[in-house]
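Incident log, structure service

09:12 report received: a user says their structure output differs between two submissions of the same chain.
09:20 pulled the input from the user's history:
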Amino acid sequence: MNDMNLGTAAITAPPERSLSTIEHELWASLRREIAAAAVREEALRSLLEIAVLRHDTFAAALAAMLGRKLADSVMPADRLESLALSTMEAAPSIVAAALADLVAIRTRDPAAEGYAEPFLYYKGFHALEWHRIGNALYRDGRRDIAAFLQSRVSEVFAIDIHPAVPVGTGVFIDHGTGIVVGETAVIGNDVSILQEVTLGGTGKERGDRHPKVRDGVLLSAGAKVLGNIEIGKNAKVGAGSVVLANVPPCATVAGVPAKIVGWCRETMLGLAMDQSLPNFES
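09:34 re-ran on a clean worker, output below:
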């Protein structure tokens, strides 16, 4: 089949196409790309063998790759790999979400010509999948190891997401540097988030204090969304904006403080990845 037919919706939609089928198709595509790269670039052959080609499943390759990314002298790669794989085995939804995230990158990022580069090199993908593992551990009461993973991911990838945060599927973190997401935030399905985005609080208040980002939202580079507010379905937040109030579904907001400057034309702005703004008077 055409690799581009593995759209995000296919991960969750037709019941006749099971997760195992979709995983098999994407895994086969990924292996083909990696094998071709190993032939093209001798210097990378050993890395690509270890990273992907020696593994039998997508989940095993993902766990091994994630383990190597966070490993240090105190926490070795094999221990992290074992933690990642055991968590994914206990919570198969992590694998389904990772597949949808990888497809989201492939379909939304014009720089991604296949699955191999995002899988191997995109730190937004790596940070998000470690977050999914940390969130599962956090919900299972293992908060110490979840906090360790949050800290280590922040050190390595410069992406800081509290392990309590639920994140939907088909999420694309583009570039990722400087992203901060607070404890009581929520991120829906098919959301796209660019670098330097903050989903934060407004002060020292406790309780439910962070933004709720609904399905299909685009958070453009440098956007700051603060407080227990809602960014409605299919909304867009312009680059560099500071959002302090609820954003209606399908609205485009921009400025400091952000105001409505337009309404969506595409079905889901998070999928369109268009950061441009309509002409408007300040």
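09:41 both user submissions now match this output. Likely a transient worker issue. Closing.
09:42 reviewer note: The two ends are 49 Å apart (CA to CA). DSSP finds ten helices and 14 strands in the chain.
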